[in-house]
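Hi Y.,

Following your request, here is the sequence exactly as I used it, all 83 residues.
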Amino acid sequence: MQTQKPFFDDLARLAGGAVNAFTGMKTEMEALVRQQFERWTASMDLVSRDEFEAVRAMAAKAREEQEILAEKLTALEARLNQS
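Below is the corresponding structure, written out as tokens. Let me know if you'd prefer a different format.
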């Protein structure tokens, strides 16, 4: 039985080394995929969340002002029709 113990120790060491190698490969692959994704999104000319929110707020304000102006126009037209 003594002769089998070094065999199992070597086998466990080999398996541990394989796990470490696969972990390193996984980390490398994740970094490469992340880099490719960032390069791909940069080439698409996407806007940031901050820019989107700023334009969204500007559009909401413009919509409110347009509604106010539409109400004023309706009132002016009513006054013009009364005259």
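The mean pLDDT is 89.

Thanks again,
Q.
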